Please model this.
Amino acid sequence: MNSKVSAGARILMGLIFTIFGINGLIMIATGSGFIPMPPPSPEMGQVMGGFFAAKYLMPLVKILEVLAGLMLLRGCMVNLALILIAPIVVNILGIHLFVDQGGLPMALALTVMFFILFLDKKEHFITFFKA
Model:
């Protein structure tokens, strides 16, 4: 993989997860973040209500987003960052494929950037795929 493309994907994903993770933590703590969110659709409201009903889930996800985002930005422990955000990326894609298609372009962009980084680091993950 082209190192400039990989570095660009790493930095952009790092920014996205750090900024939106911090915004989410502020939103959880105060009720509104520094990035205004549009009101959710009724379906998305139900999904988000379920996430927030499990009191630990959203703070945990947002903390992991911030940690992984900072790791990606610094370029340290990128493999660990990819492991931490893999299930988050899958859920972002799933929610925007099946519940709220409005965020699908961002979800697809995150998925593509994730795979660019994963393919760049695939030699570190090959053990997971051996029988």
Notes: Residues 3-30 form the longest helix (28 residues). The chain has a mean pLDDT of 94. Residues 3-129 form one domain.
